[in-house]
Specification:
Elements (H helix, E strand, L loop, with lengths): L1 H7 L18 H7 L30 H5 L10 H13 L4 E7 H13 L2 E8 L2 E10 L2 E6 H6 L6 E8 L3 H4 L1 E8 L8 H16 L3 H9 L6 H13 L7
Antiparallel strand pairs: 1-6, 2-3, 3-4, 4-5, 5-6
Helix pairs in contact: 1-4, 5-8, 8-9
Length: 243
Amino acid sequence: RPSEVARSLPTPRTRGAPPDMFPRANPALLRAAARTTGQLRRRPPAAGGCRRSLSFTFPTPKTLPEILKVPVDDLPRDPTELSALWSEYHAARDDLVGLDVDAAVGERVLARAKDCPFFVSPVFRDGGYFNLLLQCQPPHFILAYLEDYQKDPGNCSPLLTFSIFDDLADSSGRMLVRGDVVGAGDILTKAEAAATIRNVVEMYGGEEYEAVRTFNKDPPSFDFEKYVAGRESRWKGDDGKTV
């Protein structure tokens, strides 16, 4: 049973040395992304209402066996059991997100992320929104506050990272997604982080990918307002289910 297997797994660990950070994006991409509502133009307030200076070590991208400390062969292949196990394993931690995606969707996300390594993901809060800039290093994905990136691309701090693992794609039809929320609760809540990950997966893995491609290949033609409007309705209707 998933609960029994989850209890047998070690406590999740997230700290380590960073991979390569953000290379410089095309300035046209930044112009396409640098639009936020007035009330959230500055760095967003902490989710809990406070403003703390973050100090952290960037989470190391890990393989699935390194995360779970058990052989992949010991994991269930039934997609329902696997999803329940992965979700339960991450449920108790505010700084970790565990999702799973259809293997075909995950495959498209990983392939398209190589061709279109940048995108923007709005976080909606308090009647407004602020933007996170996404940079893809498949199978790893890094999101930072857009204005931090604009000020210093080489040293901006990530707020959220996630990785997509395809170890069980052939045997279960699912790919596992692990998100690390940096300074959990200070800027992004766990729910906001999960919704952001789902947004990225939907944009790269679904029918709206053309917007991602336009953002990367023809930034002046990117319809930012249309994109935000569509994402806002999806954000408000987010039900927390797997993709």
